[in-house]
Write a structure and sequence with these properties.
Largest sheet: 7 strands, mixed
Shape: globular
Number of helices: 3
CATH topology: Chitinase A, domain 3
Number of domains: 1
Low-confidence stretches: 11-44
CATH architecture: Roll
Radius of gyration: 17 Å
Length: 180
């Protein structure tokens, strides 16, 4: 199991393009969409958990969860499921959160990272993490447990990072302890 926080921004290594190539690529792709013509630049977030099969999660809030390895095709959009709705303060887009989390790779079925295994929760601003967390955490309440299914486009993309493989869909189980 990895020792670092693999959902933090800046962990993906990319190849550099020259300025001209980047401009040409941007102009070429600016008219392309994969979502029926919507050009907002955001990946669709689906918060209707009945639309896909979420991996089963067992264990009580506050304790280390277990994720049953999923089968089938991973979702192409960010999927959010509140396993337990908290009663405390609500996460905003610019919040700093203290959480316990468990991360499993959809394809590998392996646990990649866990704050529970390190024995301490993690605290960070949502502006410091991957887009899947930035879009998937707002609205969560302290005391809750949430499952996030994060597609590669909102995680580590085609390249991966460290123990996160290329084009890996990320499965997070998150317990929200505090929010500022």
């Amino acid at each position: 199991m990895a020792k670092g926080r693999f959902f933090l921004k800046g962990a993906v290594h990319t190849k550099h393009l020259t300025g001209a190539a980047l401009i040409l690529l941007t102009l070429t792709l600016s008219g392309c969409t994969t979502d029926g013509g919507i050009t907002t630049g955001k990946v669709h977030v689906n918060s209707q958990p009945n639309s896909i099969q979420f991996p089963e999660v067992t264990g009580a809030v506050g304790g280390t969860p277990t994720i049953i390895q999923p089968t089938g095709t991973p979702p192409e959009t960010l999927e959010i499921k509140d396993l337990t709705v908290g009663q405390g303060a609500t996460v905003q887009q610019n919040s700093t959160v203290t959480v316990h989390y468990l991360l499993m790779g959809w394809k590998s079925g392996k646990i990649i990272d866990s704050s529970w295994s390190r024995g301490a929760p993690a605290t960070f601003g949502l502006d410091q993490v991957i887009p899947g967390w930035q879009q998937g955490m707002p609205g969560m309440k302290v005391g809750g447990r949430r499952e996030l299914l994060i597609p590669p486009a909102l995680g580590y993309g085609d390249v991966g990072s460290g123990p996160v493989g290329p084009k890996e869909t990320l499965i997070f189980v998150v317990d929200l302890i505090a929010v500022k």
